[in-house]
Specification:
heterodimer; A: 320 residues; mainly alpha; elongated; B: 215 residues; Cytochrome Bc1 Complex, Chain C; 8 helices; 67% helix
Chain lengths: 320, 215
């Protein structure tokens, strides 16, 4: 390691400099710039998607999502920590970081359907369906729901053929699905009334504020992602750093988002934790760059500093 | 103890057992005398690149100011008020400027190798500030209570959860995210900004590369 021979800055000749004036002027500049940009470009504020909007725009998807929650086949149902223990979660090599966090926000996916319906009175068919579900043994519940999910199937997409009834519950083949169709239809009806978010997030508590359950249910369906992809916000569309419309989002997250666009991350089952680990490593490299031989010498190799301090170097060169 | 006339004795003002004396001594030693707010700078401090540090600071002031105005109106004010929406826009654009200025400032300091002369901690606190600022803005996007918040939360949870941190930092809970955004993270940002500025004033502006060779 070479010895740092940087002289004390206080030993150099000085010039007049008004720090307070500089701050006030820049503050005014930033105020004017921010106000001007706000007046010209405003800021995006697209209304949140409601369960009611989802139910009206894509009722079939809401029904198949509800059946999936009961069957335990949705994304959140098979997520692992911090919501449940139904998956190992992502690993960094052999290290199960996600699992180590623990199940601290326990969510039973079936409760995303049964919870709101159990607390909603009025429809005898739904009440008896809830009772039938609760009375059945777990294996029977799973068979009913899984069979119904398979019968509904999915529409053809991304080169994959349609399955089951192509995603249309009305065309599902006749079968023994127990109370699952009634439960799914009950959730759809509740969503259409606009009461599903409240039933999920505020049940047993006057004050809402935690939208974890609503967001998990919404994200398990296809409607939220369809809306986002239509606005170029998908994960493979640099979605994390973009905003709706042409508004700037978080461009400072470009490097984090970049890794998701390329292999091996774009095809890895552990992409999230791998990208996080890589970003932490790069951040540590940047932090401790002053101590890393080679990296800390780059400014000497590419002499942009000659431009920054050109006046000083010119004067120094002219000194006897 | 003071004398009967109220004048402290020399022993009192230098008593090392007095916590107040020790705190005062520590505070006074943070920055050399006269260097906290000097009216002169070394002759080499003569480039537009130096302005971007204070521009970043000014942008942070506007971010905090506009954020405080939004806080007065409450979480949903900006959705229903044209004034609130304008203040939100000022908040957004001042954040964009803040990051823009900070990145230029960071690159400028990189090309100056500004960590030289025992200034590594100044560089490190700057990088930490950059990282924590990204987290602060992320929680802001999660606190907007609109479509973007829903989508960013849905996407962002997978990244946070994969590290195990999602068990404690729930991006799907806007109440928690809002409090992190308006209390915890700003406190950390302001604290590290103070440490960063004290480091700058303590060591002074880094001299030009190779200035050390001129004797």
């Amino acid at each position: 390691m070479t010895r740092d021979r940087t002289p004390d800055s206080h030993d150099f000749p000085t010039r007049r400099y008004d720090l307070a004036k500089e701050f006030v002027i820049t503050l005014v500049v930033v105020l004017v710039l921010s106000g001007g940009l706000a007046a010209i470009f405003s800021s995006p504020d697209e209304k949140p998607i409601t369960m009611s909007a989802w139910a009206k725009a894509d009722p079939n998807n809401l029904i198949s999502t509800a059946a999936g929650e009961l069957a335990g086949t949705t994304t959140s149902a098979t997520y692992g920590a911090p919501y449940n223990s139904n998956a190992e979660g992502q690993k960094l090599g052999p290290i199960p970081l996600q699992k180590w966090g623990g199940v601290r926000i326990p969510i039973d996916s079936a409760d995303l359907v049964l919870g709101p319906l159990a607390n909603t009175s009025g429809d005898p068919a739904v009440s008896s369906a809830v009772a039938a579900w609760k009375a059945a043994p777990p294996a029977q519940r799973t068979k009913w729901a899984t069979d119904y999910v398979d019968a509904i199937g999915t529409a053809a997409a991304d080169g994959e053929p349609a399955t089951g009834a192509g995603g249309d519950p009305a065309k599902a083949a006749a079968g023994d699905y127990g109370p699952v169709p009634a439960l799914s239809a009950g959730l759809l009806a509740l969503a259409k009334t606009g009461g599903l978010e409240g039933a999920l997030d505020s049940a047993g508590n006057f004050y809402g504020g935690d939208t974890t359950k609503s967001l998990l249910l919404l994200a398990d369906g296809a409607y939220l992602e369809d809306q986002a992809v239509a606005q170029n916000l998908g994960g493979d569309q640099w979605g994390m750093m973009n905003e709706v419309g042409n508004a700037p989002g978080q461009p400072w997250m470009w490097l984090y988002t970049f890794w998701y666009q390329i292999k091996p991350f774009s095809t890895s089952d552990n992409a999230d934790v791998e990208v996080w680990a890589l970003m932490m490593l790069l951040t540590l490299l940047l932090m401790f760059l002053p101590f890393i031989p080679g990296l800390r010498t780059i400014p000497r190799w590419i002499p942009i500093h000659r431009l920054i301090w050109r006046n000083y170097y010119r004067r120094s060169a002219g000194r006897p | 103890m003071t004398t009967s006339t109220g004048v402290k004795s020399a022993d009192e003002s230098t008593d090392p057992g007095n916590w107040t004396n020790r705190l005062r001594g520590w505070l006074q030693g943070l920055v050399p005398p006269g260097e906290a707010l000097p009216d002169r700078q070394p002759v080499y401090v003569a480039s537009w690149i130096y302005v971007f540090g204070v521009l970043t600071l000014s942008a942070l002031a506007v971010v905090i100011l506009s954020g405080c105005v939004l806080a007065i109106g409450g979480v949903h004010w900006w959705h229903v008020s044209s004034l609130g929406h304008f203040v939100n826009s000022v908040h957004l654009w001042s954040v964009e400027l803040f990051f823009g200025f900070m990145v230029i400032h960071l690159w400028g300091k990189f090309w100056m190798a500004a960590w030289r002369g025992k200034r590594a901690m100044t560089w490190i606190t700057g990088v930490v500030l950059f990282g924590i600022s990204i987290g602060t803005s992320f929680t802001g996007f999660l606190s907007q209570s609109n479509f973007s918040s829903q989508w960013i939360a849905g996407e962002g949870k997978d990244g946070i959860n994969s590290t195990g941190a999602g068990a404690f930092f729930n991006v799907l809970n806007p109440g928690q995210m809002l409090l992190w955004h308006v209390v915890l993270l700003p406190l950390v940002v302001v604290l590290i900004v103070l440490i960063h500025i004290i480091q700058v004033r303590r060591h002074g502006v880094v001299p030009p590369l190779d200035a050390d060779l001129e004797g």
